[in-house]
Amino acid sequence: MARGRLFIAVTTVGVALTALALGLRAEDAKGGGLVGAQTCATCHEDTVKAFQAGEHGTAMAARSSDMLNKACEGCHGPGAAHANDPSKTNINRIPKQDACIACHPKAEALMALNLPAHPRNGVVCLDCHTPGHTPAPAKPLLAAAPAVLCAKCHGDIAAAFKLPFAHRQGDKPFDCTACHTVHGENRTGRLREWKNGACLECHLDKGGPFIYPHPPRNANGCLQCHTPHGSTNPKMLTRSRVADLCLECHMGVPSFHNISNPKFRACQTCHIAIHGSNHDPNLKDD
User: Fold this and answer.
1) What's the gap between Cα 73 and its chain centre?
2) Could you tell me which residues are beta bridge partners of residue 1?
3) Three-class SS of residue 107?
């Protein structure tokens, strides 16, 4: 009786293994089999090693060794058919957007909701990012510095950084990501912080709080008076003369303010606390 049970068990296991082997062969025939990174490395050794040692590979390895082993096929598709018959037609040479979204769904969702112009104009992940086969010029896996990448589409903004007064570090423009989020977070201008927050990260002294704040800041923030990227005007003001800027809101100036007199066109001679005051509602001192 025991010998009969053992025979049945061995036969069952044999049938199961045979079925599994047949199933795998059927999958391979359809090009649906996974072979793992080691098989890929038989032909693409340098590429696999560089990927595993790079930023993308090390991040995957930190999650699990299995993720790293499946990394090649996670982007390029199952490799069984390609391993059996190396051809450009039975492998995804350039991964589609879906490969990135599989691991980075949040980034894609934010792009679609908050930067619709990017998907609408066919901008995909690999237009800005490198896949990680070789060292990336900038982080995170960027194909170039943010200012260079963004300038490809936003040429008018790149030109503004070359104006006489602009947001620069020495002779180089600020990285766009210093103020803007990479994929967007449903804020005006896709800024990293709400309203004036992006400006106040650097210009802390202008933030207050003040007992007597300057009201325009509540309307349109710093951009009520300043341009964000560059200007031909000192302090990156939207007008060449301070008086012209002030008169956009303060049209009803007192009668003794004779605007034809140069001293009354230098508003900040008296109203020096232009961003806000703790002493005078007319912003005359600070």
Assistant:
1) 25
2) none
3) helix
| pLDDT tens-digit series, residues 189-229 | 577 666 677 888 888 888 888 999 888 877 778 888 999 99
Q: Which two tokens stand for residue 231?
A: 């200007």
Give the global pTM.
0.69
The whole-number pLDDT of residue 195 equals 66
Distance CA 88, CA 76 (A): 11
If residue 231 lies in a helix (H) or strand (E), which one and from where to where? strand 230-231
What does the pLDDT read at residue 227?
93
Burial 90-125 (b: 16+ CB within 10 A, else e): bbeeebeeebbeeeeeebbebbeeebeebeeeeebb
- Which amino acid, one-letter code, is at 263? K
Q: Select from 241, 239, 208 the least CA-distant residue to 226.
A: 239
Whether residue 18 is predicted with pLDDT greater than 70 in this model: the reply is no
Domain boundaries, the chain: 2-84, 106-173, 211-277
Backbone phi and psi for residue 244, each to the nearest 5 degrees, phi listed first: -60, -35
Angle of the 45-53 helix axis to the 55-63 helix axis, nearest 10: 70
Q: According to the model, what pLDDT value does residue 208 have?
A: 82
Rounded to whole angstroms, how far apart are CA atoms 286 and 55? 50
